[in-house]
Structure to design on (252 residues):
DNA sequence: ATATCATGTCGATTCCAGTCTACATGATGG
DNA sequence: CCATCATGTAGACTGGAATCGACATGATAT
C-alpha cells in the first residue's frame, strides 16, 4: 500500500489523492493534480479574485451587512447613526466602516464633525 | 457630565450616543435611538437578511470562492477535483462543500462513489 | 486659545471559523 | 459478504476577526 515515488513529485496533503483522480479521469496520476493546481493558481492570482474576495468578506459580517442594507434604504447615514442602528461601540463602527470603504462598497464624505456614508453601486449588492 | 435618567430608557453601550444623535437630527434624545434600532430590527429580522448573510458568508472564504469560480468555468466538479484544486484535506473540502450547498449556491449530485457539484445560479454571483 | 464634540487608532481580550487527524459511513466490485 | 474506495463526521487545535476601553486627532464653537 505504499505510494510509488513518481507519484509524489507534487506534494499534496493527501497522498491518496493522485490515485483517486487517476481512477476518476483516466489521466496518469502524476499529471492530473498539477492540472487542477494550475487552473486554481490562475484564478487565485487574478486581480478580480482578490477584489471579489474583499467585497464578499466585507459583506460577510452581520453588522456590516446591516449597515449596507440600511444605506440601501436610507441613502445616507452618518457614523453615529450606524452606531445607533447596530448597538455597537463607536470604535467598532469605525472599524467596520473603514473595511466597507476599503472594499469599495461605501463612499465617505466628511462634513463638519460628521462623516457620512453612501453606497457606491447599489446594483452590485449580492 | 451625568446623563439624565429619561435618556437612559434604552440601553446602549455608549451613554453619549443619544446626545450626539439629538444634536445631529434635532429630534429629542429619547426618541432617536429607538428609531434607528427599530429600523435595524426590521432589516435584521427579515428572512432575506438571513439568506443574504448566509450567501455572502459562504462565499467569504478564499477556498470556497475558488471552488465556486472554478465551477463557473468548468461546469461540474467532483469532490476530489476540488481537493486537488485547493490543496486541502478531503475533510476540509467536505466541510466547505456542505456550507456551499446549505447556502443554496451549489447543487450536489451523487453518482456512484463520487459527488458532483454544480452552480445553482451563476448569474447571482457577486 | 481652549473646551467640547465626533470619530480614528491602539492594545488586549474573546470567540468563532478553518483546518487536520482519526474514525465512521455508504457505495462498488470481486 | 468482505475489501476497497470516496466521502462524511467528530474532536481538538489555532489563527484571525470582532469587540471594547482608553487614548489620540481633527473640527467647531465659545
Amino acid at each position: 500500500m505504499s505510494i510509488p515515488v513518481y507519484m509524489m513529485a507534487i506534494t499534496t496533503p493527501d497522498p491518496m489523492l493522485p490515485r483517486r483522480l487517476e481512477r476518476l479521469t483516466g489521466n496518469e496520476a502524476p499529471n492530473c493534480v498539477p492540472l487542477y493546481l494550475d487552473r486554481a493558481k490562475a484564478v487565485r492570482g487574478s486581480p478580480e479574485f482578490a477584489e471579489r474576495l474583499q467585497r464578499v468578506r466585507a459583506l460577510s459580517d452581520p453588522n456590516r451587512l446591516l449597515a449596507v442594507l440600511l444605506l440601501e434604504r436610507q441613502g445616507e447615514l452618518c457614523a453615529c447613526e450606524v452606531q445607533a442602528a447596530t448597538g455597537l461601540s463607536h470604535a467598532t463602527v469605525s472599524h467596520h466602516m473603514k473595511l466597507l470603504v476599503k472594499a469599495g462598497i461605501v463612499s465617505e464624505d466628511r462634513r463638519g464633525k460628521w462623516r457620512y456614508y453612501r453606497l457606491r453601486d447599489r446594483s452590485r449588492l449580492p
Notes: The mean pLDDT of chain A is 88. Helices of chain A lie at 17-25, 29-45, 47-59, 62-74, 79-86, 90-102. Residues 13, 78-80, 90-91, 93-95, 98, 112-115 of chain A lie near DNA strand C (CB under 10 Å from a C1').
